[in-house]
Amino acid sequence: MSTFPTSPRPIKVQKPSIKFRTLVSESEDGYEQRRSVWPRGKRTFELQYDVLSQSEMQVLWDFYVSCSGSYLDFTFFDHTSNANYTCRFAEDELSFDEFRYRTYNGSLKLVELF
Length: 114
Description:
Blueprint: E1 2-3, E2 12-19, E3 22-26, E4 32-36, E5 42-53, H1 54-66, E6 74-78, E7 83-89, E8 97-100, E9 103-112
Parallel strand pairs: 1-6
Antiparallel strand pairs: 2-5, 3-4, 5-9, 6-7, 7-9, 8-9
């Protein structure tokens, strides 16, 4: 399994979130029975990159291509929690905005796997 690049480092992790999956069954009497479908919550990371050079953008681009978009999983180290997570890209499309000559910004969304 490959490892998400540690450089360039995102300017911030936007919208860190966690999602749980609970199955709820309701009886005719109105009672509920709940069961957790996942062993724990799934995290989502949105990484924001500002002022990337062309070579820094190329590192992220090449890694995305090597994972075939959201197809392959990888290890991601989250600096905010100091923990490693097994993730994949959330989307099969990647783009960066060139806001000055050979200077880029953009974001990547990662989804934790079990």
